[in-house]
């Protein structure tokens, strides 16, 4: 029996099948066995994001938490451009705090926790400011609410910007269709709804995004 039950969104108690899988033979990370393992993980991640046109997408594994995956995106895709963070909770706020460290032109549209975004307000904001990247949390873990990926994705695309999504607590539980929602970059982590051990995170990207 488990020593204790974890009721956090992550880390979670892992399945016995996962415990068994992790205790297979050791492999060397400089050998083809590891390359093959990494390639098979990338293949599965691309499937997880519902991608049909596989040649246009890549997925990478990051040896860090979900926060590291978000920081990897925010510190590398904005460049000298402007980014708009949409926040209606704790993790949206964290995207903003991280972006401010890396991007001089960080804009913020904020709603109180648990309050849906006002699409007309975002549209007006983007019409009035030159925005190159928009970042948003999919599942706001603090309130349990889902933000509308498809609706915001269409708006971001119509304005010629890149859409960045924090999918850390949703992927594995909720469907994320990168192609349909026009998502350029999405983060996820091993230890929430994917149900594995903490310590790894993932970024999937549309290869034509930069
Ligand atoms: C938990 C969480 C994070 C941070 O992930 P860590 O693995 O704890 O660093 C980021 N975004 C969301 C939406 C989360 O739920």
Automatic annotation (TrEMBL):
Keywords: Aminotransferase, Pyridoxal phosphate, Transferase. Residues 57-196 form the Aminotransferase class V domain. GO terms for molecular function: transaminase activity. Its cofactor is pyridoxal 5'-phosphate. This is Aminotransferase class V domain-containing protein. InterPro entries: Aminotrans_V_dom, PyrdxlP-dep_Trfase, PyrdxlP-dep_Trfase_major.
